[in-house]
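Hi everyone,

Forwarding the result from last night's run.
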Amino acid sequence: MKKSLFLLLFILLVFGSFPTSAWGQEGYQPTQPNLEARRWFQDAKFGMFIHWGIYSVLGDGEWVMEQRHISAKNYERLAPQFYPLKFDARQWVALAKAAGMKYITITSRHHDGFSMFDTGQTDWNIVARTPYGKDVLKQLAEECHRQGIKLFFYYSQLDWHRPDYFPPGWTGRSAGRPQSGDFNHYLEFMNAQLRELLTNYGEIGGIWFDGMWDKPDADWKLGATYSLIHQLQPAALIGSNHHKAPFPGEDFQMFEKDLPGKNTTGFGGAPVGQLPLETCDTLNNSWGFNLNDDHYKSVHDLVHYLVRAAGNNANFLLNVGPMPNGEIQPEFVERLRSLGDWMQKYGDSIYGTRGGPIAPTVWGVTTRKGNTVYIHVLEPISPSLALPALPGPVRSARLLRDGSKIEFAENSYGLLLKLPARAEDEYDQVIALELASSVKPH
């Protein structure tokens, strides 16, 4: 992931548009299993993002190699220091479930090129280069299958370590690599690794790509890559963090640190397509483990982001950056468990829903499921709430917290709700409206 203002501005300057040859899998028609997986994905609503690699040893985020101008040769000294003795896949998956999450997306390989799995394509991997010597993705995949959590793999398309990632993009120029290389060979290597990920780890939820923005003018041959993935696992979903409208062959659209259509970070602003949507963000300000980052988001703010994502018809992928010993730091665990407690009470208004009939606004959002519209009052502005006319007559209104009835008045102009007193820990006052018929999204 990208994080500095300099990098952000640089992206905006160089992005332009990708060449026609990078547009994806032209003529792609999703299979029935793929369409069913898309529906599952939209119903799931909440997932755990995991950024973990040998960069965690330095405790300065996943971009440390680039930002400290570390050469590839010197960076290799981190691998023998990586020994996650306390890594426990069972605990990680159980924590995701306790938080109310339905899937996990983990970095199989980040921009430093280090593979966190047992790959036959390079010895630059966790089994061959670290004293730990075990495949953490294999352990996590087996535990996800055991506990009923879907597993997605993040895969970096850019590489700061391999010489055949040539010519280099706008990052990785201080790695000290040779001034020559065969990019087509690199793409063959990448596809060979993707084949391993999609054949050696059981059923995979999908592939989460990142890094095309590093070489926006390159011929990434996405058609071959996307075809390979859909051939090996037709139900696997493909998404790419290229910050553009979706390309043919992609199955969901992602947004980094922004809600769909918003652009508060410089990464957003892409047109919102018709595919399932996902937004990702961090528990503090970092993706990878950062020893000095204690800017932890409050449970209040995390609930609001989750709810606003659902109101914008999107999933929320919330990141943790485990420590080099394999533990997830207690500040993260505490917040995730609190989110799980909230989802235990209010999950009906999130899981399986779509964006409601009223567009997101200042006071909150709406979600819908069948003939129920959920009103999420995040920022109350008065003791009553005036809404536009809904798609059908309201049969009943109740507070989701305790089922108590809500007073309302309805006419041809709209609906007026009388809001009850708000509990001190009520981050989101959720009102369930039962309509006479099912409703369509906004």
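The chain has a mean pLDDT of 94.

Cheers,
N.
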